[in-house]
Amino acid sequence: MTEQTNPSEQPAEATATCWCVIAHPQTDEERARVQAALENARATNDANGVVLAIAQLTQPCPARRNESKR
Predict the structure, then answer these.
(1) Can you give the pLDDT at residue 6?
(2) 9-50 per-position pLDDT tens digit
(3) Do the domain assignments include residue 42?
(4) Does 29 reside within a domain?
(5) Has residue 58 been placed in a domain?
(6) Of 16, 19, 33, 35, whose CB count within 10 A is highest?
């Protein structure tokens, strides 16, 4: 069983972890994957995929707010 840590207990140099129901990308690599998924969803007329990718890219995320305070 893996142990989960509270985001506020992570060291400042660690990458922030998104604890949201719809996980938001925290690195450039993760963001590129979500953008590629959005492009694929648009190309294949996958409305649910578009909604999910947009939610991942645009919703406010506590992990991003914490990172800006560092």
Answers:
(1) 53
(2) 544 445 678 888 888 998 999 999 999 999 999 999 999 999
(3) yes
(4) yes
(5) yes
(6) 16
Asked if residue 41 is part of any domain, the answer here is yes
Residue 7, pLDDT above cutoff 90: no
SS (H, E, C) the chain: CCCCCCHHHCCCCCCCCCCCCCCCCCCHHHHHHHHHHHHHHHHCCCHHHHHHHHHHHHCCCHHHHHHHCC
Q: What is the Cα 61 distance to its own chain's centre?
A: 8
Q: Which two tokens stand for residue 12?
A: 């400042």
Domains identified in the chain, total number: 1
Tell me the torsion sign for CA atoms 27, 28, 31, 33.
negative
